Amino acid sequence: MIQIAVLGYGTVGSGVVEVIETNQESINKKAGQEINIKYVLDLRDFPGNPIQEKIVHDYEVIANDPEIQIVVEVMGGVEPAYTFVKRALESGRCVCTSNKELVAKHGPELMAIAQEKHCNFLFEASCGGGIPIIRPLNSSLTADVLDEVSGILNGTTNYILSKMESDGSSFEAALKDAQERGYAERNPEADVEGYDACRKIAILSSLAFGHHVDYEDIYTEGITKITASDIKCAKVLGYRIKLVATCKQVKDQYYTMVCPVMVDGEDPLYGVNDVFNAIFVHGNMLGDAMFYGSGAGKRPTASAVVADVVDAAKHLNCTVMQKWSSQKLNLMDVSQVTHRYFVRMEGSLTRDIDQVESVFGQVRPAGVPDLSQEFCFVTKPMTEKEYEEKAAKFGTILNRIRVR
Ligand code: HSE
């Protein structure tokens, strides 16, 4: 029997207990032995809930129990999770976590400790909820040299943008709807400002390219400035707006960005709607692959955590995760990244198009019947720096969105 401790009885923690209880027989068969939750660490008590008999309030109880072989960290946030996880790994215990803040900030260090102590630090649930992506990057795609990993990594913002598109809602109304459905937190900043997706692409690109991508070095723009007018224009031009996190190789450098982008019907991310997530990977032998599914929520996330527990149980004395080097990936300056740009401008298409084309060169223009005082266009490809220089010549630009 393998004894495990779960740190945190919140949404994911209670999901982990539910998954282990519901699928006990099949999980034990796959692990090769019985998995038993001995402790659940939480500050709160749960009177009347059967979990109460496993609740402990002091981490020392877990740290001092030699029977505990696997620690599941689902508390979220960097501290005290980091201290608990580091201590667990240093004592040779495996750790399985869903905590993207922890992995993005301390991943290389914690993986190195796991390797030194011949145990495992596993974090499948930190990116894409229930979608398998960490394990494929770590083991299934090792024959390839990857040059892109990108995707829709945040369910809340994808829901908000899909809602704005399907019924013409404003950002504020769609956010309120997402909060009422329990997708968005009361403080939605980490989702809508792109910080959550930023941490996830930092993890995925570090694994895909083997060198550390510091989330603080990633250009990050959220969706708070996207308006119902932008969505109308996107529709006229045949696009949808998605919050996409990208890490892509350009010659011998990489760029990484999180920002809203326009995607057309040919793009595999076009059909990824509502709370779903998708991660697109391109390899030199594989070509394209996309991993799609439930990117958030209690059960999908807990399912990924428990799959890591099974993996840890099967590999108790050897490390299965590849190390990611603490040496930083060579990131290019975002000002040198090339895109086409969608621009929404005040004015009249017939009156102002000549001036627009005298600055931007030939563009793809469109008028939108509902927006009589505005028009929009898509530029040819240019660097961010070139775009900024040209855009500075106009005082009438209402918004610009990159085109994928
Ligand atoms: N807030 C995240 C999302 C939860 O909406 O995708 C999963 O990490």
Automatic annotation (TrEMBL):
Domain Homoserine dehydrogenase catalytic: 132-310
EC number per UniProt: 1.1.1.3
Superkingdom of origin: Bacteria
Protein residues bound to NADP(+): L7, G8, Y9, G10, T11, V12, G13, S14
Residue ranges of every copy of the Aspartate/homoserine dehydrogenase NAD-binding domain listed in the record: 8-124
Record's keyword annotation contains Amino-acid biosynthesis: yes
Catalytic residues identified in the record: K200
Pfam families: Homoserine_dh, NAD_binding_3
GO MF annotations in UniProt: homoserine dehydrogenase activity; NADP binding
Name assigned to this protein: Homoserine dehydrogenase
Catalytic activity: L-homoserine + NADP(+) = L-aspartate 4-semialdehyde + NADPH + H(+)
